[in-house]
Amino acid sequence: VPLCVFGGSMAKNYGKHDFNAPTRTTKVAREIPTEVPWYRGKPFQMVIAGFLPFSAIYIELHYIFASMWGHQIYTLFGILLFAFILLVIVSSFITVALLYFQLAREDHQWWWATFVNGGMTGVFIYVYSIFYYYHRSGMSGLLQSSFYFGYMAAVSFGFFLMLGSAAFYMSLAFVKHIYGRIKCD
């Protein structure tokens, strides 16, 4: 509870700045083109945005699961830190690249799309945890299953929120940068 009170008071006292768009905005939103090829659609982009960062941590994730749910000891914490930093960077940059393609097709509703694209790695982590449970672990029983899947759902949701937030802030910086360079009258 004390950290919750501390975070709430910090947000109340220091989080009062308004958002300033780098360019002039209009009151009427432009129409978004509806017909796009399948490889430029949002479902395909979400799969790409989740799979590529997940592939960067797949091997490390296997060892982490073996130490969490098995009887192995994990000792490579330097590599784990490197893999975590790599995960955040790759997830953010892939989301920025997908945002560029989204803006190029004149789709200006990028806010939630970048958050979801960045967080899709958390969904892939949960899918991997299902695979790990059935094919790699020796767990069985209702109590073990519910504990495992509940715990992995919480961890995966935490990764979804963390990576989605990092990707959103990187995308916001990218949009401010590219639209801040536009010279308009």
From TrEMBL:
<feature type="transmembrane region" description="Helical">
    <location>
        <begin position="146"/>
        <end position="170"/>
    </location>
</feature>
<keyword id="KW-0812">Transmembrane</keyword>
<dbReference type="InterPro" id="IPR004240">
    <property type="entry name" value="EMP70"/>
</dbReference>
<keyword id="KW-1133">Transmembrane helix</keyword>
<feature type="transmembrane region" description="Helical">
    <location>
        <begin position="44"/>
        <end position="65"/>
    </location>
</feature>
<dbReference type="Pfam" id="PF02990">
    <property type="entry name" value="EMP70"/>
</dbReference>
<feature type="transmembrane region" description="Helical">
    <location>
        <begin position="77"/>
        <end position="103"/>
    </location>
</feature>
<keyword id="KW-0472">Membrane</keyword>
<comment type="similarity">
    <text>Belongs to the nonaspanin (TM9SF) (TC 9.A.2) family.</text>
</comment>
<feature type="transmembrane region" description="Helical">
    <location>
        <begin position="109"/>
        <end position="134"/>
    </location>
</feature>
<keyword id="KW-0732">Signal</keyword>
<dbReference type="GO" id="GO:0072657">
    <property type="term" value="P:protein localization to membrane"/>
</dbReference>
<protein>
    <recommendedName>
        <fullName>Transmembrane 9 superfamily member</fullName>
    </recommendedName>
</protein>
<dbReference type="GO" id="GO:0016020">
    <property type="term" value="C:membrane"/>
</dbReference>
